[in-house]
Amino acid sequence: MGQENGSRPSRVLVTGAAGRLGRLAVAHLSQAGRYQVIATDRVPLPDGVAADLTQPALQWAGLLEDVDAILHCAGHRGPDTTWREAQDLNLDMSLRLMMAARRRVSRFVFLSSNWVMAGHRFTEGAITADRDPDPINPYGMAKLAIERVGVALAEAGDFDFVALRIGMVIADPLEAARRLPSLRRWSQGMWLSGTDFCEGIEKALTAPIDSASVLNLVSDNPGTRWDISETMQRIGYAPTTGWQADVSEAQTRAEDTAARLNCCRGEIIRHLTAGSADGSDKAAARCVQILTRAEKGPKEPK
């Protein structure tokens, strides 16, 4: 079933269905009663299909038979992901799935991550989806690479593509109310409730789009730097929850210090790995600049 006129996909393949977000997605789409959901993961599922997408596509390509849309939740997650894990369990696996899905499915929805933009933690201004990417770890870099391949395949006419840069999902409102106040302002601002996550993925699967969209997905959090206006405009995302960050003055100062030190760490690594003879001197000078600035973190270059 094509989606050129915004028609609803009848058969949706959900990868990573045993994971936290995959389970949430499968439960929502199944309960909606509007889809035939094929849940898959490399571990056995009670009502799903076991398939290891890290293996050659010939072993699992039958999963795509008569599938209209893919919701790709599978992958190794988190900032501590190593380069090897990012390569094998995020990038390579996703590319295999994308290549197998070319001209077989109408839409490919990819759960990307806010880590693609994590370097903007140390800048100012709204974080829009079209702002320069700034991943700071292998996980974010792999997510960015997958986004760009998806956009290229969509531009080639292989399928429509939506990448959702997911915020910090705490699905249960009571748990969110307990945990969020202890987190930094940066983390509080990218809270995504379970209700809004489900709203976002369903709109990404069904809204009429033109080729490709890369969008932020957080709840409607007052004062957040994560801009969701384009998400609302492009796919009709309508969040119903939000969180007003509540951070004490002492916590704000501690957060500012941590941000500056973390930024210095990145500068030192960047200059030293560049291999230049004066790398250490440049890193030291940049760190002095960061630590003595009046504003919060380094400003973004003009």
Give the CATH class of the largest domain: Alpha Beta
- Can you tell me the CATH architecture of the largest domain? 3-Layer(aba) Sandwich
Envelope shape: globular
SSE succession: EHEEEHEHEEHHEHEHHH
Main structural class:
alpha/beta
Total tally of structural domains: 2
Largest sheet: 7 strands, parallel
Report on this model:
The protein has helices spanning 20-32, 83-101, 138-155, 173-179, 185-188, 194-206, 229-235, 249-273, 279-292, and strands at residues 11-15, 36-41, 49-50, 69-72, 107-113, 160-166, 168-169, 191-192, 212-217. By secondary structure, it is α/β, with parallel strands linked by helices. It has a 7-stranded parallel β-sheet, with helices on both faces. Helix 1 links the parallel strand 1 (11-15) and strand 2 (36-41). The protein is globular. The termini are far apart. Residues 1-6 and 294-302 have low confidence and may be disordered. This is NAD-dependent epimerase/dehydratase family protein.
Strand-helix topology:
Layout: E1 11-15, H1 20-32, E2 36-41, E3 49-50, E4 69-72, H2 83-101, E5 107-113, H3 138-155, E6 160-166, E7 168-169, H4 173-179, H5 185-188, E8 191-192, H6 194-206, E9 212-217, H7 229-235, H8 249-273, H9 279-292
Provide a brief overview of the structure:
With 302 residues, the chain is α/β, with parallel strands linked by helices. The protein has 9 helices and 9 strands.
